[in-house]
Amino acid sequence: MTTITTPLTLQGPHARLEPLTPQHHDDLVDAVRDGELWRLWYTAIPTPEGMAAEIERRLGLHAKGSMLPFAVIATQGPLAGRAVGMTTYMNIDAANRRVEIGSTWYRQAVQRTPLNTQAKRLLLAHAFETLDCIAVEFRTHWFNQASRRGIERLGAKLDGVLRNHQINPHPDAAGTLRDTCAYCITATEWPAVHAHLDYQLGKSRS
Predict the structure, then answer these.
(1) What are phi and psi of 20, to 5 degrees?
(2) CA torsion sign, 120 to 45 to 69 to 100?
(3) Which of 74, 124, 127, 166 could be cross-linked to 178 through a Cys-Cys bond (beta carbons 3.0 to 4.6 Å apart)?
(4) What is the structure's pLDDT at 172?
């Protein structure tokens, strides 16, 4: 029986999502150095030195049943076959068939390419069509404008803003309070979102 935390590989023309393992470490260290992503104060992206600990943290949450972590593998271009980022199913609420797609980051070279749309299309299809989820959530920092635009381009709607939701641990913003934008796609919205994402991916192939 497939559950939300059952490891699996999801394959598309632009990206492959495979279960995260320590073997992805070196690729991910190289990926996070592309753009020095850990310096972004409004998000939590591991440093090169902290990558092993972050992989271990995510695998530990998987063991506890609260996360399913993936390495995102490029399938086209000069980075084909290499891990270029990470994503997860997280904050799993199996009883209510809800899940969040989050803790996602990609190396700078593949940002604003079809890879992210493909990865989200794969995760959303599995959640709604195999796991029978009733809703899939996305959350991001109020000031993470790129992430907010990306989520909205998927077709997710803003449910609300959680004010003073978390304390930011980033050294460049330590002690500041995070307002979290909570977005969602519901099962009834999925057919239209599905068509929208397939259209976007179709344009990228033309």
Answers:
(1) -65, 135
(2) negative
(3) 166
(4) 85
Residue 40 sits at the vertex; the CA angle it makes with 173 and 22, to the nearest 5 degrees, is: 115
At a CB cut-off of 8 Å and minimum separation 6, what does 198 contact? Answer: 121
Cβ(197)–Cβ(117) below 8 Å: yes
- CA 160, 192, 123, 204 torsion-angle sign: negative
Q: Single out the residue of 138, 154, 143 nearest to residue 197, CA to CA.
A: 154
- Supply 172's token pair: 């460049």
What are the φ and ψ backbone dihedral angles of 182, each rounded to 5 degrees? Answer: -105, 115
Three-class SS of 116-174: HHHHHHHHHHHHHHHCCCCEEEEEEECCCHHHHHHHHHHCCEEEEEEEEEEECCCCCCC
Under 8 Å between Cβ of 179 and 162: yes
Please give the pLDDT value at position 169: 86
The pTM of the whole model exceeds 0.85: yes
* Element housing 185 (H / E): strand 177-186
pLDDT means over runs of 10, the chain (206 residues):
88 97 98 94 92 98 96 96 98 95 96 93 97 97 93 96 92 88 98 96 71
CB 204 within 8 A of CB 197: no
Residue 78 corresponds to which tokens in the numbers above?
Answer: 């000069």
Nearby residues of 181 by Cβ (< 8 Å), 6 or more positions away: 139, 140, 141, 142, 148, 151, 158, 161
